[in-house]
Amino acid sequence: MFRMIIATMALVFSLTLEANAVDDKYLLIELDNGTVKIEMLPDVAPKHVAQITTLAKRGAYDGVAFHRVIDGFMAQTGDVEHGKIGDDGSVSSRAGTGGSDLGNIEAEFSSLPFDRGMVGMARAQSPNSANSQWFIMLEDGHFLNNQYTVWGRVIEGMELVDNIKRGSGSSGSVSEPDHMLKVTVSAD
């Protein structure tokens, strides 16, 4: 009986994620100077879109910094564990090392190239170590193709992404970084 209840709960959860992936087509990122609209690609990376959607609906991305921004490459954010902006406008030195309680996601590589405006999942060395962090391409980066999962593309507000404060050095670490005020999901 217990196994049947668990199996039923797992099926309901799975169907709910699939329904949410269809209904929630866009990720909206409110910045200081406007809103960035990302079209999520559940047909390309369903597990990644489901995880991002779940975290956004929890409010986990609200107040999270763009902790690593490399000019001519990408702007990285999404460390829901260590990436929240403090009262003084700074972010923890551990930003970029954390994730969420949802666990890691297996890679979902596709034929979509990492062109300017594409959104990919950040990860550690293992291809199956993505969790909550992601990045927006500032320029084409085809050397990332089939190495990282593409899960979305910026369709409005790329000029706002272009204005995100850049980091220094080869690591792109940003002191007093820009951050996402609020992140929501939408069907429109």
Give a concise summary.
The chain has 188 residues and is α+β, with helices and mostly antiparallel strands. The protein has helices spanning 2-23, 46-58, 158-162, and strands spanning 26-31, 34-40, 68-70, 74-77, 118-121, 134-137, 150-156, 182-186. β1 (26-31) and β2 form a beta hairpin.
Number of helices: 3
CATH class: Mainly Beta
User: CATH homologous superfamily?
Assistant: Cyclophilin-like
CATH architecture: Beta Barrel
Largest sheet descriptor? 8 strands, antiparallel
What is the molecular shape? globular
> What proportion of the residues form beta strands (DSSP E)?
15-25%
* Rg of Cα set: 16 Å
Describe the structure.
The chain is of the alpha+beta class and 188 residues long. The chain has a single domain (2-186), classed as Beta Barrel (Cyclophilin), CATH 2.40.100.10. It is 21% helix and 21% strand. The chain has helices spanning 2-23, 46-58, 158-162, and strands at 26-31, 34-40, 68-70, 74-77, 118-121, 134-137, 150-156, 182-186. It has an eight-stranded antiparallel sheet with strand order 3-4-6-5-7-2-1-8. α1 (2-23) crosses α2. The longest helix is centred in the N-terminal third of the chain and has 22 residues, at 2-23. It is globular, with a radius of gyration of 16 Å. The relative contact order is 0.24. Mean pLDDT is 88; it is low at 1-22.
